[in-house]
Specification:
This protein is of the alpha+beta class. The protein has 5 helices and 8 strands. A 4-stranded mixed sheet has the order 4-1-8-5, with helices on both faces. A two-stranded antiparallel sheet has the order 2-3. Bound molecules: zinc ion.
């Protein structure tokens, strides 16, 4: 059946073309969060989402159609200078990989190594308003200062006995070439990471 043969040949040729088009060193973004903080799932999702966006927003300025910084125009856009790898990532599949580390030390080391390699990065420091609390040192966690007349609640912690502790929670590395990021967080990478 000559027609069948022809069709098989075409399928084979298309498969070969697809294989050639697939990039050998794809662009990806790696998001790393601290497992040791034992964050809630929703908190983790927020932190890695912050990190993914911050890589881009750190590079941009908000523009308005009248050219002013905070105009009253109804058109706004982001003007973000991109690396070639970022441009490719934005046009592609937005590949993201989420990994974990067991300490702040490893989180900051991974970021420092990426910075040294010239890979775009972002660090998320949570303000600690909802999690990451410590005992207020002014009132010893009592919420009030017993010896001070006329000060029924502690002004420092507003009577809660606890203060917010700004905490480094997550980083983004890339978008960049997978081979470059893998030197840091890959299976043979410098920083020990685990899947969530
Ligand atoms: Zn206090």
């Amino acid at each position: 059946m000559p027609e069948r043969d022809h069709s098989d040949l075409r399928d084979a040729a298309e498969g070969l073309l697809r294989a050639l088009e697939e990039p050998k060193d794809p662009i990806k973004q790696v998001l790393v969060y601290r497992r040791d903080l034992k964050m809630r799932k929703g908190k983790i999702a927020a932190q890695v989402a912050h990190a993914s966006m911050k890589v881009f927003f750190d590079r941009c300025e908000v523009q308005t159609s009248d050219g002013s910084d905070l105009g009253v125009e109804d058109e706004y856009w982001l003007d973000i200078p991109l690396t070639a790898e970022m441009a490719e990532w934005v046009r592609g599949l937005f590949t993201k990989i989420v990994l974990t580390v067991d300490s702040e030390e490893d989180l900051l080391r991974a970021k420092a190594l990426a910075d040294e390699a010239g890979i775009p990065t972002a660090l998320i420091t949570d303000a600690g308003r909802t999690e990451f609390k410590a005992k207020c040192e002014w009132c010893g966690g009592l919420g009030h200062i017993p010896d001070v007349m006329g000060a029924p609640i502690c002004g420092y912690c507003e009577g809660t006995g606890k203060v917010s502790v700004p905490t480094n929670t997550a980083i983004a590395i890339g978008p960049a070439k997978a081979s470059e990021i893998d030197k840091i967080t890959g299976p043979e990478g410098t920083v020990p990471v685990r899947l969530p």
